[in-house]
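From the pipeline queue, job 12 of 40. The input is one protein chain; the requested action is below.

Action: predict structure.
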Amino acid sequence: MLNFLPSLARGIIASLLFGLNVLFWPFIVLAFSILKFLLPFKPVRRFFDRILLWLSENWISCNSGWMNLTQKTKWDVQGLEDLNYKGWYLVVSNHQSWVDIFVLQHLLNRRIPLMKFFLKRELIWVPLMGLAWWALEFPFLRRHSAEYLKKHPQQKRKDFETTRLSCEKFANMPTSVMNFLEGTRFTKSKHARQESPYQYLLRPKAGGTALALSVLGDKFNSLLNITIVYPDGTPTFWEFLCGKLQRVIVRFQNIEIPQHLLRGDYEGDNNFRVAFQLWVQQLWHEKDLQIQLLRKESGVS
């Protein structure tokens, strides 16, 4: 609607509206979370869980509102038809920018249960947002280097236990557990440093997803495999606010999770770990080919 304005003006307007959302919703979410904490009775907690869900979905709707107001994005989306708001989903996606989160929330809000993202532990210190994510029980994971874990192997088990406890909290109502398997945003420098075997993706990390399945595997209806492509180049968050996201391609694919991978000891069973990693690597190989095809179809070499 406001796409006739200069990009700078749209960026300022979008920033103000985004900022108002960040100032308004987290305080309400935190207030109800404190009440939920102070009244730890199951019926009461479930009541507050429904309130927190309603608040979160309206928060996302407000973000979609300023996106529609200031953006003129061409959306090329396929695969939303068979999603179930009352289902359970394990969600994975490639990751290129903070914009990915807004794209996914915009398209999936009220189509599937609220997505609970795996977040880096450091993000809990983001002003207001970190408290809101904590209040909504998003899983916070520590990122350790391979060298650190070799010296402190007990930390890996501790991190998995923390993740397990977070996932168990989701068992009371339908939830979508969201994980960017690459663990970080794609950049050419990270791609080169990893010596990634994929052309458009970093190496996937399977541990968090395996743990979510081990805790909630019998509840998940399917794996929702998402591929995001920005044909005109990956936008920065500021470029996104300025309305420079001209085109975005998103593909959703419901995949049945192999039964033998729904339960297993990823840390203690080497055979299970290898089988799970091979499954994830195959998903990533197919995603890499899909990105190549989508880029070609959209006129990008």
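Job complete. The chain has a mean pLDDT of 87.
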